[in-house]
Design brief:
mainly beta, Porin, 18 strands, globular, about 425 residues, Porin_dom_sf
């Protein structure tokens, strides 16, 4: 399969272009920005970059004089896990390799795609493939396969940006990261002296019945990712709405508020009513900041979900879910190390929680558990900003729905991730 796909990827790579615009017009950038507003993806100062810019905020290469930009990243690791004294031994993993390719069709018409190969070639996904029409810094149209901007991680998920081997639990088990759909929407930015404000809004295909009819035997929104038909048609004809607003104060930090919601069930077929309309809604708050002086980087995301589960389902299917994570990263050494001139040694820690079922039992009024706690201390070494070698120790508590003593899992992980 991979032998067939690589020639296709290389053929596409030779016909597309990325972040640095081709000189298709003779009007200067300054004049164009004065007429139409600043380009929201190109030449953005570092302290103005936001999660909105994550798709373009990557190292792209432009081979020779060809009108193309291409890039990607790869990550691999080894781990040893032990659950209540039982272990399956040491294993090696290559969870993903991602290729991005981009084209500037015109100075303000851009195309970008992201293709991910997971677990070797066990899964091959188009995570992003959209055309951006940039009318003004405040008004831009995006259409194609878009990354739903719920929280921060769903958009800003590239492995080399993180000090941790595993992706955050709540961002993959409540929010179905990385979650993308076919649709369209608007996005934009407003610049002031010390602030940057941004918004995004999209209509896309959405969820389906698999979020409650799945092998997990619980309400599990990521099950919808398994359905490839969401890139072909809507499951019920009702679009999923995703809205996000964010603000960033230069040299301080960014905060974002987002919501994603819609109908998930097949409520009618050829005019025949099958069920009432049942909604799924998610809310998320994300933030990041760097503490002055210490350069301590703090990043977090918290999410809440509400699902209209039919009364015929048992109480093990949660109507409400919640979770979140908090990362703290502290640089301890910077400068020349082991022959690299701009190396950084970090220590970091992540605290995270997932509650699949928020509520109480009808019969006893006792708490419904079905939750996970996890703490992850980490050490990472960055020989360059685009490459990270990381060592993690994860200690995790999994509590079942009845609140029995949790299963305790200790995991050692060593791995790397790099852009190329």
């Amino acid at each position: 399969m991979i032998n067939k796909l690589l020639p296709v990827c290389l053929l596409v790579a030779t016909s597309v272009f990325g972040q640095v615009p081709v000189a298709v017009d003779t009007t200067s950038n300054a004049k164009m920005d004065a007429l139409f507003g600043r380009d929201t993806t190109l030449h953005t100062p570092k302290d103005e970059k936001m999660n909105l810019d994550a798709a373009y905020n990557r190292p792209f290469l432009r081979p020779g004089k060809l009108p193309i930009s291409i890039g990607g990243y790869v990550e691999a690791n080894t781990q040893y896990a032990n659950t209540d004294g039982v272990s399956e031994g040491l294993s090696f993993q290559m969870p993903r390799m991602t290729i991005f390719m981009a084209a500037t069709i015109n100075r303000r018409i851009k195309f970008l795609t992201e293709i991910e190969f997971e677990d070797g070639t066990k899964e091959i996904n188009i995570e992003f493939a959209s055309v951006d029409f940039q009318f003004n810094s405040l008004l831009n149209l995006r259409t194609g396969i878009v990354m739903n901007p719920i929280g921060s991680f769903n958009q800003n998920h590239d492995g080399p940006k993180w000090e941790f081997v595993d992706r955050p639990l709540s961002s993959t088990r409540i929010i179905p990261s990385t979650f993308s759909n076919v649709g369209f929407g608007l996005y934009g930015k407003k610049y002031t002296r010390d602030w940057v404000f941004a918004y995004e809004g999209y209509l896309t295909n959405g969820f389906d019945n698999s979020i409650i009819a799945n092998t997990q035997n619980r309400t599990f929104l990521p099950a919808a990712k398994v359905n490839p038909n969401r890139f072909e048609e809507s499951f019920n004809g009702v679009p999923l709405v995703t809205l996000k607003a964010a603000a960033k104060r230069r040299k301080f930090g960014e905060i974002g508020l987002s919501w994603m919601g819609g109908i998930y069930n097949k409520f009618q077929d050829d005019g025949l009513v099958l069920d009432q309309r049942r909604r799924v809604d998610l809310w998320a708050v994300d933030f990041n900041t760097v503490l002055p002086g210490s350069r301590t980087y703090i990043n977090g995301e918290f999410v809440w979900a509400r699902v209209d589960v039919p009364s015929t389902y048992s109480q093990q299917f949660g109507r409400r879910q919640q979770g979140g994570w908090l990362d703290v990263v502290q640089p301890v050494l910077r400068g020349r190390m082991l022959g690299w001139n701009t190396a950084i040694l970090n220590v970091a820690a992540r605290l995270e929680r997932v509650d699949y079922n928020v509520g109480t039992f009808n019969e006893t009024n006792g708490n419904i558990y079905d939750e996970i706690w996890s703490v992850v201390p980490a050490v990472s070494f960055r020989p360059s900003p685009t490459t990270v070698i990381r060592a993690n120790y994860r200690y995790r508590w999994d509590t079942d729905i009845l609140g029995n003593p949790p299963a305790r899992t200790a995991t050692f992980q060593v791995g790397f991730s790099t852009y190329f």
